[in-house]
Amino acid sequence: MIRLVLVEDESLVRLGLRQLLGFDERIEVVADAADGPTALSAIERERPDVVLMDVRLPGMSGVEVLKAMRAQGLTTPTILITTFDEEAAFLQAMHAGANAFLRKDISLEDLKAAIDAALKGDRIFRPAITQGAQRRLFEMRANFPSADLPDPLTPREIEVLRLMAAGLSNKEIAGSLHAGEATVKTHASSILSKFGVRDRTRAVLKGLELGYI
After folding, report:
1. What are the pLDDT digits (tens) for 193-209?
2. What pTM did the predictor assign?
3. Checking DSSP bridges between strand 27-33 and strand 50-54, what pairing results, if any?
4. Which of 76, 78, 97, 203 is most buried, judging by how many CB atoms fall within 10 Å of its CB?
5. Domain 2-128, what architecture?
6. How many Cα atoms are found within 13 Å in the side-chain-facing hemisphere of 67?
């Protein structure tokens, strides 16, 4: 049984999600909340397997609740959902360690797939959001001292890193840059090597820390 805490401030949406999730015999909604502080208390009390939480909440935003969870050592897989393409919230959620950032217009099957992925430690970001974030990331100018790394990233590697931060796969990055997928994999490997990290998530966080993103 997957124990889930549901956080949504709109009563009808919260009820609808609870009923839809109830169709899956594996999922038990052990608590729900309509605001940030209540959500944090419920998560602390129930210690669920996964949290499904709206971004916009009274009292504390979903991102603020997630940051508070992580500050308290609560590593519960967390899925944030939103009605809008909120680029700033997307980047903040990714930095805070959200497992998924999804629009509410996704299908039930996609939502359940995201829950399963989150439980495995995977991260999912819907293209409808990441495309907007991609545009913003390309508009941002890198502001970092090259001495932070023995081998600074090349301009092409910075482009690849920013598209990685936007949640695109190697294939999608290749399409965006009009390059071969093998070339993108080479750039991605070089980024991980220069940053001294093992995966894309840590590379993106390192890029945020250094100012590449």
Report:
1. 999 888 888 888 888 77
2. 0.68
3. unpaired
4. 78
5. 3-Layer(aba) Sandwich (3.40)
6. 13
